Amino acid sequence: MIRYFAVGLGLLQSVYAVAGPDLVAHEWGTFTSLQGSNGKVLEGLQHEEEGLPEFVYSRNRLNPIEHSAFAPMTLSAMDPDSRVLAQSQPQPQPQPQPQPQPRPRPRPRPCHGKGMECFNASSEFAAVTQKLETPVIYFYSPKPQHVNVNVEFPNGVISQWYPNAENFRPDIGAGSALSNGAMSWSVDIANQPAPLPAVSPQDIWAPSRNVNSAFVKVGEENERFIFYRGLGRFDVPFEVWSTAEGSLVATNHSEQAIPAAFLLNMKDGHGVVQSLGAIAAHGSVRVPQIPNVTAASPTIDTYIAEASTRLRQGLEASGLYADEAKAMVDTWTRSYFRTPGVRVLYVVPREWTDRILPIQVTPEPRELVRTLVGRVEVFTAQEEQQLLGQLQTSVATHTTLNLAPFGRFAEAKLRRVLELTSNPAAHVLGERLLKELQ
């Protein structure tokens, strides 16, 4: 399939409207949940894991460019490849861009809680069961176009985004319910290289730019894509059960087949990845024993290379270009593959994506690919019993329960353990710890 590159500029917006048949849009993203051994999603997924650059807009900081000095960088267009349309005119060269002067720092909106995204201090953060992470939308066209994008989030709220949106709901301070979210962008796309906000090569933001897509412009803001992130409360028809004996069952309760799924386990610098294959509609895959990770298991680098290759293949099969699939995997390498624990990654059926995040792109693209990866962190039955034992020991000995090893999943895991005990003292301690985590 052809992707277009470097064409004439300066077309009037009235001309853009007829260019729809040449427009291609591709989206990828991921959403994360934590499921107990009973396959039920757990609340408390609002805590932040991957920080974002300061220029990204947030519901608790609406002037990111003014929040700190904006140091632009110029990203040159990539070399043409087999998807590129040959051009009859020379490639325009990027012009040096003046460095904007630092602006006064505004007073940021207060954020209730520790290390979490927030809308306002009254939000019911504990209700979050799904963390929508890094959906990005790329555009391809042989000519400049003006494009309007509207994303609905019926069971959630979009909390961070870039470039700036034309409008969104709910309004800031309009309520704490995780529902009826939406955001609209009005962007210009073109293949002319443009100055982008500077990020380090190690930043989570950087890999998403390594794609041969058009540049996206809103006012003075430029990027290679539209980005958004959100918090939600919704169920998907996919459950992962685990038993005290170490087995695991992944069940697809939907009418659509899951194209590809993978079981991962990482611990102490070693990891194992196991393909679960496609999971048929209303089908299940049983793993008699979750792969054990030992010193004899593949080293972290070998494990990551294998897991990355398998996931990229699944993403490309969904319709993403190879560089898009690589950008997604590179973005989430640390979170997907380097984070200790058991998890299932699966390619979400397109029908689910359209229900979770209805989208409208105008003009209508001749091709719209939307690929989400569902990430299920599996709180295994064995791990539940271990944490329950630690909680009971803390109660009996009046000592501190260390939740730091659980990172952003500490709240959700503690909530699950409290479901497993009727000990009043354990609930008193647990509720106190939950308040501290929030």
- From the spread of the alpha carbons, the general shape counts as globular
Q: How many β strands by DSSP? A: 20
The percent range for strand residues is: 25-35%
Distance between the termini: 48 Å
- Parts with pLDDT < 50 across at least 5 consecutive residues: 1-19, 63-126
Provide the succession of SSEs: HEEHEEEEEEEEEEEEEEEHHHEHEEHHH
Helix content: 10-25%
Mean pLDDT: 84
Spatial extent as radius of gyration: 23 Å
Strand order of the largest sheet: 2-6-12-4-1-20-18-15-16
**What's the helix count?**
9
Report the sheet with the most strands, covering strand number, pairing sense and barrel closure: 9 strands, mixed
**Structural class category:** alpha+beta
